[in-house]
Amino acid sequence: MKRKSEKTTILFVNKNAQAFKPIQVSSGLILHWKKYIAGIIVSFAVLLGAVVYLISLQNEQVQKQLFLSNRIHYIRSTFSGVDTSAMKEKFLKIDKELSGINEFLKARGIKPVVKGGEGGESDDAVLSGDEISDFYIKYLNRLSYDFSHTPLGLPSYGRITSTFGHRENPFGGANVETHKGLDIAGPFGSPVKAMAVGTVEFAGTRGGFGNCIMLKHANGFETLYGHLSQIMVRVGQKVSIGQVIGKIGSTGRSTGPHLHYEIHKNGQKINPQSFLTLK
């Protein structure tokens, strides 16, 4: 048989002893009021947390919208009054020139500065002028590094009297010999300059080269300077591009004052004439 729930009657009386309508409350509610109050507090806390979370989400969306709005305003203000088509044309010309330099370096075994990407047309208008200029500054800095570490040009002023490849033997005997560098005739004692940043690998006498200097550069390059009258560097010394390292002479197997100049790439002798111009 179901037990009838117990009730507790609460009677409110004013100061004049006048009674109001009695209220009946479950006895269990009175006995366990702390539990009910705790439940109400927990429920309220959960509800409050949910409200705070929803407000934070809304604020995040507002911040995103504000960022996008500011970005659009920045792009518009950056390019307002600017002929973007003319700007794009200029950058395309720069790209063409830099691509030509890259091809020059690539043909000589140097890794290209920027690898070409794949995909559709790009919208340059989404980049600011500062972002574009920063890209080209980094690009040119890398090119500057590669050029300073690549042996370009002639190490001494003078006339090229013998080129790379087969030639008649200047000392007679065999009619043809293989010449693995350039001979540059010049006045005795003329300065000889380093053609790239590097380290002195050898400085001394070496067979038919007479007084000779060997420099080690980046990207697998080495340069050799022979028949010197004077050596002005020592092994292990760091040299800068254009630094005078010796003077023209006629030491070793030589018919007169001149510089014998070689370029090596990864241990192989290559034609220095490929490095005289950017063509």
Automatic annotation (TrEMBL):
Membrane-spanning ranges: 36-55
Supply one GO molecular-function term.
metalloendopeptidase activity
> Does the UniProt entry include the keyword Membrane?
yes
Q: Name one Pfam family in it.
A: Peptidase_M23
The cross-references to SUPFAM superfamilies, in alphabetical order and at most eight, read: Duplicated hybrid motif
Which keywords accompany this UniProt record?
Membrane, Signal, Transmembrane, Transmembrane helix
Record protein name field: M23 family metallopeptidase
Source organism of the structure: Hanamia caeni
The opening ranks of the lineage are: Bacteria, Pseudomonadati, Bacteroidota, Chitinophagia, Chitinophagales
